[in-house]
Design a protein that fits this description.
Number of strands: 2
Helix content: 40-55%
Low-confidence stretches: 4-8, 299-311
CATH topology of the domain at 450-558: Serine Threonine Protein Phosphatase 5, Tetratricopeptide repeat
Strand order of the largest sheet: 1-2
Number of helices: 31
Radius of gyration: 33 Å
Structural class: mainly alpha
Mean pLDDT: 91
CATH architecture of the domain at 450-558: Alpha Horseshoe
Strand content: under 5%
Shape: flat
Largest sheet: 2 strands, antiparallel
C-alpha cells in the first residue's frame, strides 16, 4: 500500500531488505521501480549488502535489475570485496558477479584486491579456501600487493597453510617482498605458525632471505608474539634450522636471532636458539652480547606464554645458566651491569652481581650501594673518573633515585660537584633531565652551580622549563630558583628561561611559574637571537595562557 502511494525512502528500504535477506520484499521493490544501483542515504549500494551477507538470490535479482557489479563504496570496496566469509554461497556469488562484468582485480582505497581480502583471517574461524579458489579460477592475480606491499600470500602466511598451498598452486610468488623486504616466510615465522611455515618450506621458500634490516625468517621468529605457544615456537625453530637456517646469521646491525629474541621477551625462542647452537657471546655492531641486551630491557615483561608474567631477570638467568660471560664488554667498555644500573633495574643488578659481575665506582653510585662503594673508594677508586659513556660517577648517581644516598659520599671523596660529562652537562643537569627532584635538591645543597651551562648553553633551569611532566617540572623549577638560578641566563640561541617556558605549551601550571620568574627579575621584553620576545614565542606556539600573562606583564612594565 505504501508503494502504491509513492512512499519515500524506497532506496533505503531496498538496501535494508537486501541486507537482511528479505527476497520477496526485494522483488516487490524492484518490480515497483526501485533503483537497484541507488545507495539511498547510505554510501553502500544494496548489492554490497547482499553480497556481504551471502544472499545469492537477492544478488541475482539486483544484477538482473541493473545493479553495478563494479560499484564502489566510500572505502573503494566493490561487491567482490564483500564475499569474505561466505564459504557456502560465495563461489556462486563470485560466478554471478564476474558474469556481469565485475573486475576480479579491483583494488580498494588500501590497494587490497578481493583475493587479498579473502586471504585475511576469517571472522568465523577457519580458512576461506573455496572463496580463494573461486577467485583464482576466475583469473584473480595472486601477486597484486596492497599499499604496504603485502600480497595475498603474505596474508595467508599468517594463518592458513591450505590457502598458502592453494595460492602457490596458482603460481603466487613465494619470495614476494613487502615494503619492508619481508617474504611470506618471514611473516609465517614471525607469527610462530607451524602450519604455514611447513607449507612454505615444502614449496621451496628461502630460509636465508633477508628483509630490509637484514633479518632472516629466524630473526623474525625471535620477535614472535609473547602469547605464541612455546611448542609452536620450538617447532618453527626446528623446521627453519632443519631447512638450513643459520642460527647465528647476522642482521645489518650485527644482531643474531638470539639478540632479537631477548628484547622481544621470548624465552621460548631464546631457549630454542640456544639449543640449536646460538652463540651466546656474539656481539652486535655495538659489541653487545645477548646478555647486554637483556640487562638493558624493561622492568617486567611477558617472557613465556607457558609461564605467564615473569620479571625480565628470568631471561638474564637463562643466559647466565648457559654460560654467558657476565663481565663481557661492549665496544665502549660497557658491561651488562653498567646497562642494568643505568636503568635502575635492581632485580637484574642483583642477578648479575650474584653471578660475579664486577662493580665499578659508577655502578655502585647509580645503585646507591654504600656497602659496595665505600671499599671501592678506599681501594683507590677514582670518584671523578668518566665511565664508558663520558659520565662521571656523580652523574650516574644523580640520574637514579637510589643514587641520591651516595652523592655526599662522592663529593666528600673528591668528586667535582660541577664536573662535566661528554655533553658538557653537570650532575645537576642530569638530575633535572631524569626528573629526580630529591637529587637536584641535594646537589644544590652541595653547592652545585645552578647556572652551569651545557654544550648548548642551557642551564638546568632552561632544561627544566622545557619539560612536560606533571607536578615534577614546577617543583624542579622551585628548587633551582631557591638555589639562585639566573632567570635571565642566555643559551647559545639567545633564549632566556622565559623563552623556553613560553615555547612549551605542555608545561604544567605554567602561569604560576611565569609569575615566579618575573618576580625573580625575568625581563618579558628580552629578545632571543631571532629577535623574538617570550610573548612572540608563546603566540607562535599557541601557548594561550602564557601569552595572556606575558601580555599583561608587558603592559604593566610600560
Amino acid at each position: 500500500m505504501l508503494l502504491d502511494r509513492g512512499a519515500a525512502g524506497t532506496s533505503d528500504a531496498l538496501r535494508e531488505a537486501a541486507r537482511y535477506g528479505h527476497a520477496e520484499v526485494v522483488r516487490l521493490l524492484l518490480e515497483r521501480g526501485a533503483d537497484a544501483a541507488d545507495p539511498g542515504a547510505n554510501t553502500r549500494p544494496p548489492l554490497h549488502w547482499a553480497v556481504e551477507h551471502g544472499h545469492l538470490e537477492i544478488v541475482r535479482m539486483l544484477l538482473d535489475h541493473g545493479a553495478d557489479p563494479c560499484a564502489r563504496d566510500e572505502r573503494g570496496y566493490t561487491p567482490l570485496h564483500e564475499v569474505g566469509d561466505r564459504e557456502l554461497t560465495g563461489p556462486d556469488i563470485i560466478e554471478l558477479l564476474t558474469e556481469h562484468g565485475a573486475d576480479v582485480d579491483a583494488a580498494n582505497s588500501d590497494g587490497e584486491t578481493p583475493l587479498y581480502r579473502a586471504a585475511l583471517p576469517s571472522h568465523f574461524g577457519g580458512g576461506r579456501s573455496r572463496i580463494v579458489a573461486a577467485l583464482l579460477d576466475h583469473g584473480a592475480n595472486p601477486e597484486l600487493p596492497d599499499r604496504k606491499g603485502y600480497t595475498p600470500l603474505h596474508r595467508a602466511a599468517w594463518q592458513d597453510g591450505n590457502l598458502v598451498r592453494r595460492l602457490l598452486d596458482y603460481m603466487a610468488d613465494i619470495e614476494a617482498r613487502d615494503n619492508e623486504g619481508r617474504t611470506p616466510l618471514h611473516l609465517a615465522a614471525g607469527g610462530g605458525n607451524v602450519d604455514t611455515t611447513t607449507a612454505l618450506l615444502q614449496c621451496g621458500a628461502d630460509v636465508h632471505a633477508t628483509d630490509d634490516r637484514g633479518h632472516t625468517p629466524l630473526h623474525r621468529l625471535g620477535a614472535v608474539y609473547e602469547r605464541t605457544r612455546a611448542r609452536d615456537v620450538q617447532e618453527v625453530s626446528r623446521l627453519l634450522i632443519a631447512a638450513g637456517a643459520d642460527v647465528n646469521a647476522r642482521a645489518d646491525d650485527g644482531a643474531t636471532p638470539l639478540h632479537v629474541a631477548v628484547p622481544n621477551w621470548s624465552c621460548d625462542a631464546a631457549m630454542a636458539f640456544i639449543a640449536a647452537g646460538a652463540d651466546i657471546e656474539a656481539g652486535d655492531h655495538r659489541g653487545h652480547t645477548p646478555l647486554h641486551v637483556a640487562a638493558a630491557m624493561g622492568k617486567t615483561v611477558l617472557v613465556s606464554a607457558e609461564s605467564g608474567s615473569t620479571p625480565r631477570a628470568r631471561i638474564v638467568e637463562i643466559l647466565l645458566e648457559e654460560g654467558a660471560e657476565v663481565n663481557a664488554t661492549g665496544n665502549r667498555g660497557e658491561t651488562p651491569l653498567h646497562l642494568a644500573a643505568m636503568e635502575g633495574q635492581a632485580t637484574t643488578v642483583a642477578t648479575l652481581l650474584a653471578a660475579g659481575a664486577a662493580h665499578g665506582v659508577e655502578t655502585a653510585a647509580a645503585l646507591g650501594d654504600v656497602q659496595a662503594l665505600r671499599p671501592l673508594l678506599d681501594a683507590g677508586g677514582d670518584p671523578d673518573a668518566p665511565a664508558f659513556d663520558g659520565r662521571r660517577p656523580l652523574h650516574w648517581a644523580a640520574g637514579t633515585a637510589d643514587g641520591g644516598t651516595v652523592l655526599p659520599m662522592l663529593v666528600e671523596a673528591g668528586a667535582d660537584v660541577n664536573g662535566r660529562d661528554a655533553e658538557g652537562e653537570t650532575a645537576l643537569h642530569t638530575a633535572v633531565r631524569k626528573l629526580v627532584t630529591s637529587n637536584a635538591s641535594t646537589l644544590v645543597d652541595l653547592r652545585a652551580d645552578v647556572n652551569a651551562q651545557n654544550g648548548e648553553g642551557d642551564t638546568p633551569l632552561h632544561i627544566t622549563l622545557g619539560l612536560t611532566v606533571t607536578d615534577v617540572s614546577g617543583l624542579l623549577a622551585d628548587i633551582l630558583l631557591r638555589g639562585g638560578a639566573d632567570v635571565n641566563a642566555r643559551n647559545h640561541r639567545g633564549q632566556r628561561p622565559l623563552h623556553v617556558l613560553a615555547g612549551n605549551p605542555g608545561f604544567p601550571e605554567a602561569s604560576g611559574t611565569v609569575a615566579r620568574l618575573v618576580r625573580a627579575g625575568a625581563n618579558v621584553r628580552d629578545e632571543d637571537d631571532d629577535g623574538h620576545t617570550p610573548l612572540d614565542v608563546a603566540l607562535a606556539r599557541e601557548n594561550g595562557a602564557v601569552a595572556r600573562l606575558l601580555a599583561r606583564q608587558a603592559r604593566a612594565a610600560d
